Write a sequence for this structure.
């Protein structure tokens, strides 16, 4: 959504694409589909009361949950908070959600909603002259960021908004036809009619464009083609308006452009008007944002645009298709040169050769073209100084190759495509750079459908698009295979390409002059030896992303060397920055890198790289976990820590952030290490990662890494590793109330224990199993025995844990006074040893105990302290528990609205942590909502 700079510090909303909330230019995260669906329902009816039943219908089109109303209340509370947090200080209007029977109302200035802005421009356009009408509707169309409500599948209003977009596109084209731009509109209209083959309005516009381009016979043939298809597939004849238009074309009676309109598209200067653009790429789909960016060129600051991206990402197709649409803006012609910067077995084309071609295209006789390059540059720039010409330079190797080809006049535009970023053009020539990414999934599916014409591609299109990494070249190859019959059916092709080892080979078609592997091969062979070596190392790594310290460790290189080399791989678009500290590869580039590593490196070298990266993650994870809580095991990676360069992990926030950023990589490294027999490294890394998941619990994720570590320890015959993995698994089971599964683990730990601390952990776990089975007498005896064991060992971490456990059993036995004293002792010890996560839980436990003995002031005070600590330290589950305790205390004090807010947040926190506490918090919330409803009835 666009806004002037003076309005940048304001809230804006979008439904013309994925549902969007912008704080100025900054997107505000809206979480899952529930909150996005709620916001969409309110935005589609701004300043109106939207009944809660209607919202529920929008959110749950199929199975309706029993707690739908409660969930909606939670979404409303969450959205209110986001709006409050997002409103800039100087925004006096903002947006508010009001509770108004029978639902909710979003009070907002409609001009902050993209749909309202688009409709406003459309309304103004209706009474405007053709040129202004085309401009207004074009600006309105530019507000679309993709299909409306794209992140809310099957939304009931989406078809209506898609129809609005299509109708506006037709109105804009009709206005441009009035201006005599038929020739420039034919390509766009052919794409439109392919997408909507039975839409008569679009076909009528195509007939007019062909007719006004002097292609009357083509217009008549186009009508006959449409009529035959309509009869064959729909059993109907064209409607009266289209038939009448056809008859007027037959009689040659359509109005032609006026003399003034013809003058607008006639070259102003020169005898020769070059028109060198290649044909548009068939089936072109999507790229709305990129087309908008190109349409915004040139600017006051620059008359050069660079589209850069990985091989096969569709740079040429994008620029050529846009150039056809923009040709009318450059009435003195279009120049095109393929520079062959990355063509296999061919040297890049020299600027002097291209200058000769361009001068001839501009009407300079061959005998008048200078031999000297500088003289050619001077003549070329003189000819273009007063002209408005579009210059497209495709497949450029480096900035110096094309610098002599840049016109210096203010009315011309040069667009360059390259696999490298051409930072030299950006820095020296003020070029504007657009890094082109693969297609969004819906556009990738459209491209497959446009090209293959296979009826069932939509059934598996999303999977095919994903396997193609959403790269247009790969999608075109797949479409060619589908269309030719190779691979038989789309589903069979999915099966073939799902095998990673065969995917690159499958993304090739006999007779085509390109394949994914061949395209990437050219980029790889252009790397210098240092970059090539780094690319080979990347091919050995199992992770999704990589940081500079991890890559340095994997390659066995100094961090300074790797830091200096990484920009070179970015420049060649073989890797891309991900966030502030990581780099990533597209999937197909990753597969190609893996093939390169297999060919270029010996098996022992590849194993060494994997061992190196495992060592890095062991050192970093051990360092990070010690910021989260003191270890309960004797494991350490001190030697590795001293030998490696690690990221800054000196605070709890940095440790939590590191685990979050590296979690997918940890999964991948654990799996790869287990497969290659790195048993000891794998179980130790799983143990370190367990500390993070114990704080930010996600059950399936947590269990998966522990299962990998346990299997690796057992495969290596390592009793210490098996024991600590079973301890970790027991903590997980205890957290998710699976007591019956704990006892066998505890018994196995005690059976194989190799040291006192492991035996202590096993004894504590055994008592935890009894506690889960409500065998409270046995449990408190077991915990007290573990407490004595911890004190004998001088292990304060274990001592605090056992005090906490004893207090919980005392509470269950009704010994609440004793439980408060024991719990306070646990809390003080956690604080002393700096166990920040468990300090939160101990404080919340203490608050809960105070609430149960009726000391509500103390309960609220301790719950708020626990909540503050949990939020500050990122302990998601601790925050959910603290909010639940606080909500119950506020409920008991009669502060129902405040209790509702805390309990809604508690339920949300438990759900995000995938923890069982959500049931008790939801029950407390239901009670509060009932009491609020009863109070409202009485008032």
């Amino acid at each position: 959504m666009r806004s002037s700079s003076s309005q940048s510090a304001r809230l804006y909303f979008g439904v013309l694409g994925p549902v969007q909330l912008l704080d100025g230019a900054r997107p505000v995260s809206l979480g899952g589909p529930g909150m996005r669906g709620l916001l969409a329902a309110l935005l589609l009816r701004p300043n109106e009361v939207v009944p809660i039943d209607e919202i529920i219908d929008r959110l749950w089109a199929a199975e309706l949950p029993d707690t739908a109303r409660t969930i909606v209340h939670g979404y409303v509370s969450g959205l209110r908070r986001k709006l409050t947090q997002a409103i800039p200080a100087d925004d006096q209007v903002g947006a508010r959600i009001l509770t108004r029977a029978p639902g909710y109302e979003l009070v907002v200035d409609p001009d902050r909603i993209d749909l309202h802005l688009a409709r406003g421009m459309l309304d103004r356009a209706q009474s405007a002259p053709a040129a202004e009408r085309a401009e207004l509707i074009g600006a309105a169309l530019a507000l679309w960021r993709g299909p409306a409500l794209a992140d809310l599948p099957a939304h009931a209003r989406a078809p209506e908004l898609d129809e609005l977009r299509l109708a506006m596109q037709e109105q804009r084209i009709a206005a441009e036809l009035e201006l005599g731009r038929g020739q420039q509109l034919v390509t766009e209209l052919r794409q439109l009619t392919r997408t909507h083959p039975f839409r008569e309005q679009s076909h009528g516009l195509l007939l007019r464009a062909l007719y006004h381009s002097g292609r009357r016979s083509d217009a008549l043939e186009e009508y006959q083609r449409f009529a035959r298809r309509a009869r064959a597939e729909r059993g109907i004849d064209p409607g009266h308006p289209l038939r009448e238009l056809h008859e007027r074309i037959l009689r040659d009676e359509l109005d032609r452009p006026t003399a003034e309109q013809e003058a607008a598209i006639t070259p102003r200067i020169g005898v020769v008007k070059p028109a060198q653009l290649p044909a548009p790429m068939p089936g072109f789909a999507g790229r709305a944002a990129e087309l908008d960016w190109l349409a915004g060129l040139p600017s006051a600051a620059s008359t050069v645009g660079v589209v850069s991206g990985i091989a096969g990402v569709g740079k040429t197709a994008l620029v050529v298709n846009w150039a056809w649409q923009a040709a009318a803006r450059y009435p003195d012609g279009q120049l095109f040169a393929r520079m062959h910067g990355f063509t296999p077995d061919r040297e890049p084309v020299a600027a002097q050769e291209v200058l000769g071609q361009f001068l001839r295209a501009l009407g300079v006789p061959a005998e008048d073209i200078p031999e000297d390059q500088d003289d050619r540059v001077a003549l070329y720039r003189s000819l273009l100084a007063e002209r408005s010409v579009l210059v497209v330079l495709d497949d450029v190797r480096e900035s110096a190759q094309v610098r002599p080809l840049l016109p210096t006049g203010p009315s011309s535009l040069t667009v360059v495509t390259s696999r490298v970023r051409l930072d030299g053009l950006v820095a020296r020539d003020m070029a504007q750079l657009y890094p082109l990414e693969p297609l969004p999934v819906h556009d990738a599916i459209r491209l497959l459908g446009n090209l293959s014409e296979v009826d069932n591609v939509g059934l598996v299109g999303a999977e095919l698009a994903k396997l193609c990494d959403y790269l247009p070249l790969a999608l075109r190859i797949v479409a060619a295979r589908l269309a030719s019959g190779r691979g038989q059916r789309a589903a069979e092709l999915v099966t073939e390409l799902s095998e990673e080892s065969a995917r690159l080979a499958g993304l090739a078609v006999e007779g085509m002059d390109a394949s994914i592997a061949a395209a990437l091969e050219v980029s790889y062979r252009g790397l210098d030896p240092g970059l090539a070596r780094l690319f080979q190392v990347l091919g050995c790594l199992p992770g999704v992303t990589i940081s500079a310290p991890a890559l340095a460790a994997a390659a066995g290189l100094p961090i300074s060397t790797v830091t200096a080399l990484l920009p070179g791989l970015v420049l060649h678009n073989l890797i891309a920055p991900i966030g502030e500290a990581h780099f990533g590869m597209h999937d197909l580039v990753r597969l190609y890198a893996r093939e390169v590593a297999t060919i270029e490196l010996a098996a022992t070298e590849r194993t060494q790289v994997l061992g190196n990266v495992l060592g890095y993650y062991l050192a970093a994870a051990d360092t990070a976990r010690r910021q989260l809580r003191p270890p309960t095991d004797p494991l350490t990676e001190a030697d590795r820590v001293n030998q490696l360069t690690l990221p800054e992990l000196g605070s709890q926030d940095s440790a939590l952030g590191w685990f979050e950023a590296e979690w997918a990589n940890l999964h991948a490294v654990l799996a790869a290490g287990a497969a290659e027999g790195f048993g000891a490294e794998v179980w130790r890394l799983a143990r370190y990662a367990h500390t993070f998941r114990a704080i930010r619990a996600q059950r399936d994720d947590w269990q998966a890494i522990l299962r990998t570590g346990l299997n690796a320890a057992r495969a290596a015959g390592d009793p210490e590793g098996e024991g600590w993995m079973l301890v970790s698994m027991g903590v997980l089971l205890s957290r998710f109330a699976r007591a019956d599964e704990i006892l066998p683990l505890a018994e196995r730990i005690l059976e194989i224990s190799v040291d006192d601390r492991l035996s202590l952990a096993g004894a504590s776990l055994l008592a935890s199993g009894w506690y889960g089975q409500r065998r409270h007498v046995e449990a408190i005896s077991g915990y007290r025995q573990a407490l004595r064991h911890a004190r004998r060992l001088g292990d304060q971490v274990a001592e605090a844990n056992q005090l906490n456990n004893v207090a919980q059993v005392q509470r269950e036995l009704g010994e609440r006074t004793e439980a408060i004293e024991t719990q306070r002792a646990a809390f003080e010890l956690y604080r002393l040893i700096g166990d920040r996560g468990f300090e939160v839980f101990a404080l919340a436990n203490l608050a809960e105990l105070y609430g149960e003995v009726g000391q509500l002031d103390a309960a609220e005070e301790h719950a708020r302290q626990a909540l503050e600590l949990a939020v500050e330290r990122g302990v998601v589950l601790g925050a959910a528990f603290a909010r639940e305790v606080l909500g119950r205390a506020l409920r008991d004090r009669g502060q129902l609205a405040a209790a509702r807010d805390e309990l809604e947040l508690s339920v949300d926190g438990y759900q995000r942590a995938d923890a069982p506490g959500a049931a008790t918090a939801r029950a407390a919330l239901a009670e509060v909502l009932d009491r609020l409803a009863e109070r409202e009835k009485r008032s």
Summary: The domain at 180-254 is CATH 1.25.40.10 (Serine Threonine Protein Phosphatase 5, Tetratricopeptide repeat). The chain is about 60% helix and 5% strand. The CA atoms of residues 16 and 595 lie 42 Å apart.
